[in-house]
Design goal:
It contains 20 helices and 37 strands. The protein is an alpha/beta fold. Strand 2, helix 2 and strand 3 form a beta-alpha-beta unit.
């Protein structure tokens, strides 16, 4: 069994190799899902790959960010240079990236990232068919579910065994992006799940502090030391440690702990696990739990009264004092600390976390190197914390890394990183390949207004003059059966128990217009529920419905051999022309673009996708032109979780430290967190039509709507009178 360790810097890379990791994963510059960490350059990646290979250690390069259209030239350059470096695999998420690797860089191996939300057999099979040699499973799987996947695998299975957990399924979290454009799918997550939430009355919407408040979404860390023997017996291929943002102490201790357990013989394993547990406890992490391994809805995964900060709690800053143009925090220490340690500041009011290295400690007027617990001292704060001086919020300090002992100058590090550069011949060869691929993909003539595009057997005018259809999405039969103030071209109906139980009435309501209905699958369908969903699909087809919308590409497997029309939901995360081409090649006839997309990226993607000049586009885009849509109104699920919603009151609104308001609902066993205030791109409807979208989706899922609310939505659609402004998601901003 492989032990796979994280490395966000050279020190952690060395620590992982020295403590016995079989493989190490590192991020590609600007294109990985942890871009908040200090990034390696391509030359540095080359150094690490060659040095690791000399030590018999594999290196996997995380290229697992979603790729915007404007990122494609950088991606191609990165892929070409990585190909010349021979990493052991790329960790990938974006469908367009997968298509490019398969087409132009076939020697590069791919591992499907956990951000692809693979949680069932069909998902693993899909990645195998897409050319991935390994799948990193979703962290929400139980031991029983993992075992089932391993038994029937045609692909290597990698499981997260230790580290941070997310409240939402990875790949389905929109929270950070919805409020500020910092996309977790692009490595910019600001971790809003770690903040403290208050509750407010749904009537008065006034922020109040009560028993229902707390760190409601902040997950404890995962630790699976005791489960290693069972996972080994199952045949899991790789155990992965999370933590490219963690310290050297963390990496060294955790790798050493799991190395001990993996290598232990059966007779001594119990004692070894005890020894390894001590190492884990010294690693300055959060409180630990066994995650989802034992239960699909674990009760010990969240402790609502704890902040979820990493590290050892030092105490609260009692006051902030400026002394000689420097800023000091007065604190009574709960644990000892010393100069050189890494400290994290937690600001209660905003939920922000700021980090610095402790440079000075004062005991009264004397500067000291260290201070014991229960001692009142002054700690020097960086100048960047000037804004804290008048902050009345609670400010807490945590030690997140200890002082690293200096290495013996005679022996030094066990791993020596030898700087290596690509030769001039290699660089010339790589640059020539990049130029050839760029010409195939991007060298396209301007499309004139007179040119037409072939769609099926009919010829239509150029896309820029085509009117976008309006689609209405609903998750309750009442919204479908009631008299609506507006008349959409098509309806998207969420498949759930209530909708299916009213299928007869819904069919009668549509009558001859039954073809206007598209049934939408949820993004998560665990294997235990697959059979039930198959029965629902069969019933719908027998009733006369033939159009469906899939939320995960693996759901294509549910329609093999069936004569149906298939569309893709925004959860496919189509953000560039290459991912659109791959979706078209799978047989979809339409798909929504990523709901996170901003205006610039949307225009770039559509311009490139609609161009008909290159040989590649003539083959994939013109012959299989995908109808493209976009969600333009709604309250999308910002968190999609397996954690039970029992602890969330349906009668209360959750309020973030920034006064953003949310509500939580349980839908068919999953917990969905939505913004109370919908986003709306309806004022830009004409602009979206002109840029070339085929359909616009008004999504009413999760919304409680009466006649008044429906009339207001219609007024927004008509854009005939001035309405209160609503958020625009990332459309008017920048998707980072």
């Amino acid at each position: 069994m492989e032990l796979l360790a994280p490395a966000g810097n050279f020190e952690n890379f060395k620590a992982a190799v020295e403590e016995g990791a079989d493989s190490v994963y590192v991020g590609a510059p600007s294109l990985n899902a942890r871009t908040l960490v200090r990034e390696f350059s391509l030359a540095e990646l080359n150094t690490m790959i060659q040095s690791a290979h000399e030590s018999g250690v594999k290196v996997f390069v995380a290229l697992n960010s979603l790729i915007r259209e404007e990122d494609l030239p950088l991606l191609l350059k990165t892929l070409a240079f990585l190909e010349s470096m021979s990493p052991d695999a790329l960790i990938v998420q974006d469908l367009g990236l997968i298509r490019l690797v398969h087409t132009y860089f076939p020697t590069l191996k791919m591992h499907g990232s956990t951000l692809m939300t693979v949680h069932n057999r069909d998902g693993a099979q899909l990645l195998n068919e897409l050319g991935c040699s390994r799948v990193v499973l979703a962290r929400e799987l139980t031991m029983k579910e993992i075992s089932s996947l391993v038994e029937e695998k045609d692909i290597e299975i990698e499981v997260f065994i230790h580290g941070a957990m997310c409240f939402s399924y990875s790949g389905l979290c929109l929270f950070s992006s919805f409020h500020g454009g910092k996309s977790g799918l692009r490595g910019k997550c600001v971790q809003p799940c770690r903040r403290k939430f208050s509750t407010a009355s749904s009537k008065h919407q006034v922020k109040t502090s009560n028993a229902g408040s707390g760190y409601l979404f902040s997950m404890n860390d995962l630790s699976g030391l005791e489960l290693v023997p069972e996972l080994m017996k199952m045949g899991v291929d790789s155990l992965k440690i999370e933590g490219r943002l963690r310290s050297e102490t963390y990496v060294r201790n955790i790798v050493k702990a799991y190395r001990l357990v993996i290598d232990a013989d059966e007779e001594s394993r119990a004692e070894v696990i005890k020894e390894a547990s001590l190492l884990v406890n010294e690693a300055l992490g959060r409180r630990i739990s066994s995650g989802y391994f034992h239960a699909p809805r674990p009760r010990d995964a969240i402790v609502r009264h704890q902040s979820g900060n990493i590290g050892s709690y030092l105490g609260r800053i009692e006051s902030i004092k400026p002394i000689s143009d420097r800023l000091y925090g007065s604190i009574t220490l709960k644990n000892p600390c010393q100069i050189g340690e890494r400290i994290r500041v937690h600001i209660e009011r905003t939920g922000e976390r700021l980090a610095f290295t402790l440079a000075e400690i004062k005991d009264e007027n004397t500067i000291v190197k260290n201070a014991p617990a229960n001692k009142k001292v002054l700690v020097l704060l960086p100048k960047t914390f000037k804004q804290l001086e008048n902050n009345k919020s609670t400010i807490e300090l945590y030690r997140v890394d200890t002082v690293t002992p200096k290495k013996n100058k005679k022996t030094g590090s066990l791993l020596v990183l030898k700087p290596t550069q690509l030769s001039k011949h290699q660089s010339a060869s790589v640059n020539a390949k990049i130029a050839r691929i760029n010409k195939k993909i991007f060298s396209v003539p301007t499309v004139t207004k007179q040119k037409t595009t072939k769609l099926g057997r009919k010829r239509h005018k150029t896309w820029a003059h085509k009117k976008s259809e309006l689609w209405l999405r609903a998750d309750t039969p009442e919204l479908i059966l009631a008299k609506s103030p507006f008349n959409p071209d098509r309806y998207v109906l969420n498949i759930n128990k209530k909708m299916i139980s009213n299928i007869g009435q819904i069919k009668k309501h549509y009558g001859r217009n039954i073809r206007s209905a598209i049934w939408a699958l949820p993004p998560v369908i665990h294997d235990a529920r697959i059979r039930s969903v198959e029965k629902q699909i069969t019933l719908l087809m027998k009733t006369g419905f033939r159009a469906f919308q899939i939320a995960h590409l693996s759901q294509l497997q549910l329609f093999v051999g069936q004569r149906v029309h298939l569309y893709g939901d925004y959860t496919l995360n189509l953000l560039n022309s290459q991912s659109i081409n791959l979706a078209a090649e799978t047989g979809l006839i339409g798909a929504q673009l990523s709901i996170e997309i901003d205006k610039r990226s949307l225009q770039n993607t559509l311009n490139e996708n609609r161009s008909q000049g290159s040989a590649e586009n003539r083959k994939s885009a013109r012959a299989k032109r995908l109808q493209l849509g976009l969600s333009v109104y709604g309250t999308p699920a910002l968190f999609t979780s397996r954690i039970s919603a029992d602890s969330f009151s349906s009668k209360r609104i959750l309020v973030s430290p920034k006064n953003e308001q949310f509500f939580v609902e349980n839908q068919d066993g999953y917990t969905l967190t939505r913004s109370k205030k919908p986003f709306s791109l309806l004022p830009y409807k004409q602009e979206l039509q002109q840029v070339g979208l085929d359909y616009l989706v008004v999504d009413l899922s999760g919304m409680k709507l009466g006649k008044k609310e429906m009339t207001e939505i219609n007024d927004r659609l008509q854009n005939k009178k001035k309405m209160p402004k609503l958020p625009t998601f990332n459309y008017l901003g920048t998707l980072e």
